[in-house]
Amino acid sequence: MNIILMGPPGAGKGTQASRLVNEYGLTQISTGDLFRKAINEQNQYGVIAKYFIQFGHLVPDDFTIQMVRDYLKDNTFENGFILDGFPRTIVQARELESIAKEFKFNIDAIVNLDIPQAKLIKRLSGRRTCKDCGSTFHVEFNPPKQEDICDKCGGELYQRSDESEEAVQVRLETYNRQTKPLIDYYTMKGTIININGDQPMEDVFKDIEKALEDK
Ligand code: ADP
Ligand code: ADP
Ligand code: ZN
After folding, report:
1. Which ligand is nearest to the CA of 156?
2. Quick one: CA dihedral 64, 66, 69, 74, positive or negative?
3. How far is the CA of 112 from the centre of ligand 1 (A)?
4. CA–CA separation, 127 and 105 (whole Å)
5. Which position among 19, 94, 122, 160 bears the catalytic label?
6. 212: CA distance to ligand 2 center in Å?
7. Are 120 and 18 in contact (CB under 8 A)?
């Protein structure tokens, strides 16, 4: 099964994706994680991505699409994949449709995590990310057992540099302007599943599971 996971920054995409990975053996494809990895490795994608990400802007479409295309081409997905954070524009959504045709895969479900914008600031400002494995925690809602240490791999937790107040504000505006229209795009196609993301993590996951079982 191949899934698209959508939602504003901080909605819980990464959190739910990693649960889906554990439960169904899907492969998580997070464009944000791929960009951060590229930045660390200082490879061709990293240099350009860094410039846009630090200010909270989207990385340009052609560049993002190329990276995702390469990733889908170079990897096999035994049990399917979860696209976490892609597509984020209508252009990316259209390109994904043509990549799917070319590589002969289907998108089986589009899951949208719905949450009031006012809740996102707190989620983002409290998020801590593992520098080694990318797992996320929350200082209040999902604290690690040991402060600033990853439960999964023992790596050091850090606060992302695009999680400053200014960058978060720009990211939310960017979402409203460029990504939100995608909800209408997929709603019109009749393929979107809206999930209430404003509930405890376990309940969000249960609702996603229920929705996927009905598929
Ligand atoms: P996204 O990938 O959509 O940006 P994350 O999964 O990283 O979002 O979640 C953002 C922050 O909110 C993280 O710190 C995470 O631990 C926390 N979080 C995720 N889901 C919930 C939830 N249902 N309730 C409370 N906090 C949550
Ligand atoms: P979020 O917590 O906002 O969901 P991500 O880790 O998914 O964060 O993304 C971090 C940043 O990476 C975004 O603010 C954006 O600059 C860039 N990015 C991620 N996915 C995309 C995409 N599909 N298109 C363009 N830029 C992207
Ligand atoms: Zn870790």
Report:
1. 3
2. negative
3. 14
4. 34
5. 160
6. 25
7. no
**Whole-angstrom Cα distance, residue 12 to residue 28?**
14
Express each pLDDT in 38-85 by its tens digit: 999 998 889 899 999 999 999 999 999 999 999 999 999 999 999 999
Q: Which of 123, 175, 198 best tests ligand 1's pocket when mutated (most atoms within 8 Å of CB)?
A: 123
Give the containing element (helix H, strand E) for 28. Answer: strand 27-30
Tell me how many degrees the CA angle 90-70-76 measures, rounded to the nearest 5. 110
- Tokens 């630090």 belong to which residue? 54
Give the other-Cβ count within 10 Å of 125's Cβ.
16
Total length of the chain: 215
Secondary structure in 3-state letters for 78-131: CCCEEEECCCCCHHHHHHHHHHHHHHCCCCCEEEEEECCHHHHHHHHHCEEEEC
Report if pTM > 0.85.
yes
